[in-house]
Design brief:
Length: 313
């Protein structure tokens, strides 16, 4: 028995993912030229000694999402990837209820022909996402090879990501590790939750930077959180589990109210329109150039204003 065709091509074509190569095989883009010659459309075809193949990679098709001129804050860009500072309120990927006006629409317009294509489609490669109402740093691939490299970095957790969050109360101890598995909530399928069976391992390192209030009336805290893993809503779920949900978070912990504090601070929290969470740091080795990259992002104006209200209370 020989080796599977899709496995052979994966080894010979490191710029393309195995899934992409399997699709190319199924679409008739691989021709066996030895013997009578024929198109091979089965990735399970067993390659024999002396077999010779021709692989044709078609030009990337235009993306289904339309290009839209939406302002972006670009932190870094080259031929392979783009790092941007996403504002709160911008959805990353088209989905039911958000067919357009997303980050993907904006990137298709911004990148133009520099998008070589992901999976044969001229679209940006979204490796990780930020919730609609979470702001901050995000990296996106422009081609299959970069996409594959970034996916490998994320799967190995071989990068650094840090967030700033304003939370209710004062965490005790002031710094530590939250090591708690996360899975789908059994009571609300729209939510994630800390679970004791069937979840995925999840670890968040945290440190309290500043506290607001007093020992008698602990009001809120500014925290820095570093992800060791990257699960859906990980920081929001872990902080709620810790008993200190993110201020303004509409989904976890009913954190739109302070337990204690003066009227000014309470009003600022109650009217804050989103979870007070910002991706402040991103560091990784460029998958193509191998250069070490590190990026920092200042807190956005709405979180700066919320901080000022808490400080003045």
């Amino acid at each position: 028995m020989g080796i599977r065709l899709d496995k052979v091509l994966t080894d010979l074509c490191p710029d393309l993912s195995r899934a992409r190569l399997q699709a190319l095989i199924a679409e008739g883009h691989v021709v066996l030229t030895t013997g009578p010659g024929r198109t091979i459309e089965d990735g399970n075809y067993r390659v024999k000694s002396g077999d010779c193949f021709v692989l044709t990679v078609p030009a990337a098709r235009d993306a289904v999402p339309q290009a839209q001129d939406i302002a972006l804050t670009i932190v870094f860009e080259d031929d392979h990837l783009i790092v941007l500072d996403k504002p709160a309120g911008l959805v990353v990927h088209p989905a039911p209820g958000h067919a357009d006006g997303t980050l993907v629409n904006a990137l298709i317009a911004h990148c133009g022909d520099s998008l070589v294509g992901i999976g044969g489609v001229r679209r940006p490669g979204i490796v990780h996402r930020l919730d609609k109402d979470t702001s901050g740093l995000l990296v996106v691939a422009k081609n299959d090879k970069t996409m594959k490299g970034l996916v490998d970095l994320f799967s190995r957790h071989d990068l650094t990501r840090a967030y700033s969050a304003l939370v209710r109360g004062w965490p005790s101890p002031a710094e530590g590790l939250i090591d708690a598995a996360i899975g789908r909530s059994s009571s609300n399928r729209k939510k994630m939750a800390v679970v004791f069976t069937g979840g995925r391992e999840s670890r968040t390192h945290y440190k309290t930077l500043t506290t607001f209030g007093s020992d008698e009336r602990p009001m809120a805290a500014l925290m820095r959180l570093e992800l060791e893993t990257g699960r859906t809503h990980q920081i929001r779920v872990h902080l709620a589990h810790l008993g200190h949900p993110v201020l303004g978070d509409p989904l976890y912990g009913r954190a739109r109210r302070l337990v204690s504090g003066p009227a000014l601070a309470k009003a600022a929290v109650e009217t804050f329109p989103r979870q007070a969470l910002h991706a402040v740091h991103l560091g990784f080795k460029h998958p193509i150039t191998k250069k070490k990259l590190k990026f920092e992002s200042e807190l956005p104006p709405d979180m700066v204003d919320l901080l000022a209200a808490l400080k003045s209370a």
